[in-house]
Specification:
By secondary structure, the chain is an alpha+beta fold. The protein folds into three domains: 131 residues, no CATH class; 146 residues, Domain of unknown function DUF1254 (Immunoglobulin-like, Sandwich); 123 residues, Jelly Rolls, CATH 2.60.120.1600. The chain is built from twelve helices and 18 strands. The strands form four sheets. A five-stranded antiparallel sheet has the order 1-2-8-4-5. Strands 10, 11, 13, 14 and 17 form a five-stranded antiparallel sheet that branches. A four-stranded mixed sheet has the order 7-6-3-9. A hairpin with a 4-residue loop joins β4 and β5. α3 crosses α10. The longest helix has 33 residues. The radius of gyration is 24 Å and the shape is globular.
Amino acid sequence: MNRRDVLKSSVTALISLPLLAAPADAANKVSASDHQRIRELARQAYIYALPMVENYYTIYQYAIDKGNPQYKAPFNQFGNVSRVFTPDDTSIVTPNSDTPYSFLMVDLRAEPLVVTLPAIEENRYYSMQLVDLYTHNLDFLGTRKDGNGGGKFLLAGPDWQGEVPAGIKRMIRFPTQFGFALIRTQLFNPDDIENVKTIQEQYHAEPLSRYLGVAAPAAAPEIHWPVIDRESAEKDFWSYVPFLFRLAPPLKWEMDLRKQFETIGLAAGDKWPTRTLSPRVREIIRKTGQETRAEIDEGVRRLTTSIGLFGTPDKMRDKYWERALGAKGGIYGNDVEETVYPIIPFDNKGERLDASRHNYIMRFVDGKFPPVDAFWSLTVYDGPTKLLVHNPIGRYLINSTMEKQLQKNADGDIILYIQKESPGTDLESNWLPAANGPINLVMRLYLPRKEVLTGEWIRPDVEQNG
């Protein structure tokens, strides 16, 4: 029996649980069987909603809180970051430092949005990832699916029933009225940044009415956005869930599941905890949430691949555990056809990576790099936070744009040195500086070839080197 079957079998019993306000003694008495059922449902609700809360945490910083140092732009306007991410960028875990980002937080309540991508060089990779409030990847625009010729694309909400106008290359339907979009634009080398800026300046979003030259529809009502930060996203997790459920209606196969969540006070638009929840039930739900978060964190610590963690709503149907691991371990990861992320928390002896205890190497035999049609990279992160860490040479990754600078040994192998101190001037080109403590490594394989997707290609081991 899977998690969803367990939930279905529990719903009838849950409705009769002592959730309603009652005299104190009666309200706080919960039988052992009822206690277990509440725990099961609270655990599943936490797993289900965690990606939404993490998504909202980023959207709030990027598009709502104008005083936040991470703020990018208002809804429906592009915010370009004309540099790669550094340790100062803390709103997204395991951030990509290969490609400058362009962000677009979308609000499709009033009308669709027309997005323009420019034509770019044939050898440069770019992609626009479209994400709903649940963190499902809805689609990708750009190199893999549309080529590099650019075009205009229509982003429409779930209720829009209009006709797609002339000049639109494709329409993408969002199942939620709000969403998150980001563009990755390949940077060949530091001297290439001005070319990337020129491309970013041509990314454009406009309401459909402006594109058509007609009167705009009535504006959507204002929303009271609850304040969220890293601490409150964990401490006050349950209070955000009903608010987000109001903005993200259940998918067609989730209607029963969401009704079950209502039995523990998680009805769309309500305030949690509701007055009808008994103090004892509130305590059980809060404690279960804390335990479930620890369980998810441990699951993230053991991840070795991104395969199965990201995808469309259909692909991720009932895969709530995987979706939670993806959101906590590397939110906004691409589908495997776009990017595969080998995650490396352990060395070849099965020990967790810790640069305070060991130096490490990764060996590319005969100088053979990962098989990709775009580019690859290897990035090092702080183990506990999954963020980039300051280092003496300001290098957070080694990627395919650096291949010609990497030194080969006498056997023709290229060895990368992953350690806190320089391996020496002659080998510094091959040095990936690490924090003085637990670390995580993540490879990125953009447009991976067939042998990556089938498992024929095996990534090199990370070996202890002193």
